[in-house]
Amino acid sequence: MNRTIVDLLADNAEHARAFAGRFDEVQDGQYPEAVTVCCSDSRVLQDQIFGNETPGRLFTCGNIGNRVVQRTDAREVVSGDVLYPLAHAGTRTAVVVGHTGCGAVTATYDALAGGLAADSEPPGIEHCIDLLAPHIEPGVDLLPEGLDDAEAVNHLVEYNVDRQVDELLGSDDVPDDTDVVGVVYDFQDVYGGERGEVHLINVDGERDPTALRAEHEVVDDRIARLWTY
Q1: CA of 203: how far to CAs of 168, 208, 215, in Å?
Q2: Per UniProt, where does Zn(2+) bind (predicted)?
Q3: Most buried of the four, 44, 168, 170, 171, by CB within 10 Å?
Q4: Taking a C-beta distance cutoff of 8 angstroms, is the pair 78, 169 a contact?
């Protein structure tokens, strides 16, 4: 047997022993407090970044680039993965989680800048880049001068989070009373806090740090942005 599978099953056995009694209240249904849309990067420990050890608390979606959209034959829509708890489980908080050094944003930036050949990725990855590109492209033209590539990517990580928040706020499928929040998970010492901290950058479309701190004093020390535009 593949050693990785053996190790995963051993770790799962420990998980089952620790969590066996925590499913009693959610065996027959779920009412998550929030839906999180995270990048599926292996360094983004999706539930763990919020200290979650409670089954049923978070409805976690993951994909490269923390996208909230999917493409149908007719048009681009909010993904059913994200909508499900909002439509069927009473969830009224959505959190878009970007992260520093995002590979999907990097690949999209490279494609927009002409550094990535059109056929250089498998079709599935190209599809993901094609979904991100229209949301990120306007941000490339707004980037401050003098940024190196890594800095440009981290600026665009914020820009992408903002655009995904906008998609949720602008969708008729998302209930009007849903709180939509955008954050960035930092493990690269970009924001100056602890590695692994989540930094709040957008609340219901408001992205000005001064306005956010005035409105949300209880978390004012967690509000930080690399740029406003």
Answers
A1: 12, 9, 10
A2: 39, 99, 102
A3: 168
A4: no
Question: What is the pTM for the complete model shown?
Answer: 0.95
Mean of the pLDDT values across residues 74-87? 96
Q: Is 148 left (phi over 0), alpha (psi -120 to 50) or beta?
A: beta
Sequence-distant (≥ 6) Cβ neighbours of residue 22 within 8 angstroms: 53, 54, 55
- Per residue, the 3-state secondary structure of 40-69, as one string, reads CCCCCCCCHHHCCCCCCCEEEEEECCCCCE
The per-residue b/e assignment along 97-132, b for 16 or more CB within 10 angstroms, e otherwise, is bbbbbbebbbbbbbbbeeebeeeeeeeeebebbebb
In words, the CATH class of domain 33-222 is alpha beta
In order, the DSSP letters of 20-41 are: GGG-TTTTT----SEEEEEE--
Which structure tokens are listed for 14? 């420990």
**Binding site members for Zn(2+):** 39, 99, 102
